[in-house]
Amino acid sequence: MMSKILVIEDEAAIRRVLVKILSEENDKYELFEAEDGLAGIEKIKKEDFDLVLCDIKMPKMDGVEVLEAIKKIKPEIPIVMISGHGDLDTAVNTMRLGAFDYISKPPDLNRLLNTVRHALDKKELVTENKILKKKVSKKYEMIGESEAISHIKQIIDKVAPTDARVLITGPNGTGKELVAHWLHEKSDRAKGNMIEVNCAAIPSELIESELFGHVKGAFTSAVKERAGKFEAANGGSIFLDEIGDMSLSAQAKVLRALQESKIQRVGSDKDIKVDVRVIAATNKDLKAEIEKGNFREDLYHRLAVILVKVPALNDRREDIPLLIKHFAEKISSEQGTAVKKFSTKAIQLLQEYDWTGNIRELRNVVERLIILGSKEVSEQDVKLFASK
């Protein structure tokens, strides 16, 4: 695959020397030229380059301005600055602004070639890393091609690389947890922990200790100091499931953690800094809960920077055949048996059901049909074993 290299240099003789050296060095380098910074920026807007070599002193637009402009337009492109003897201080400063490296005029052949090779290697690694981040573990794969699911996947692709907080809403059993895991796995925090907290499953008197930890003696059963979930998630993400069930006291502490990136263990007044991305989910109408005085409006606005609404299965029936196939393969693999097929009529009948329990209910029904149904699950099997 050809590597596209753009040389931005106002001195034609130096520009041609650079192009000649690089083109003779490697026949997989495709060289482009720009006689000044403005021309270079125009080319970068139109073409995808793998590397830019840019002079510092140029008319119309100097190299520092070109560097800053490229970092705004296409920040992933490595930029090597070309410096005259008197530009060395500026060249060093460009490294702080994001330049990959600099080479001096007249260019030393080995230094030039090594710098170009290293810069292209870095670009390749960055590209591979981006591709890997777009791939999500099969464990948390969202199955479906409906418009609603495609829209959610698009939102995740845009939001995951940022640190924006996300509030996921939708009925029970729709897959809100999968959305949270997708966000984490596609983010720059994927190497960190993804800590899950089911706020509805923890008694209200223990939720603060669970989230923020406690010191010894903070309450009767606090026999030793303990870190909380926010500390465990430091550098990663925390998923607050069923946040609508959280006590008002805990809500106030979560709000402080979001505002100041600090927490305090129960029984302590010592601040602990935390770097955590918060993803929350609920099956409740939080605006209605705010009206009732059960949920803090200021916390809602902090959490709901990005809203993701996960649809009920009844609203995405076109995805049911894909979900049945996915669950049949997964369940058969878990059980170490051959994958059972579902007849067309069996699938059509399942598409007509009222799935009040959503995807969770569908998975249970598929498992039941695999265990109890015929070699190929039939319409009759569905009528017998999938009754509501």
UniProtKB/TrEMBL annotation:
Biological process terms from the Gene Ontology for this record are:
phosphorelay signal transduction system; regulation of DNA-templated transcription
4-aspartylphosphate is found on: D55
Any idea what this protein is called?
Answer: DNA-binding transcriptional response regulator, NtrC family, contains REC, AAA-type ATPase, and a Fis-type DNA-binding domains
Give GO terms: molecular function aspect only: ATP binding; DNA binding
Q: Where in the cell is it found?
A: Cytoplasm
> For the Sigma-54 factor interaction domain, which residue ranges apply?
142-371
Q: InterPro entries under this entry?
A: AAA+_ATPase, AAA_lid_NorR, CheY-like_superfamily, P-loop_NTPase, Sig_transdc_resp-reg_receiver, Sigma_54_int, Sigma_54_int_dom_ATP-bd_2
Q: Fetch the SUPFAM superfamilies from UniProt.
A: CheY-like (SSF52172), P-loop containing nucleoside triphosphate hydrolases (SSF52540)
Q: Does the keyword Amino-acid biosynthesis apply?
A: no
This protein's UniProt keywords: Activator, ATP-binding, Cytoplasm, DNA-binding, Nucleotide-binding, Phosphoprotein, Transcription, Transcription regulation, Two-component regulatory system
* Residues of the Response regulatory domain: 4-120
The UniProt entry's GO CC annotations, sorted and at most eight, read: cytoplasm
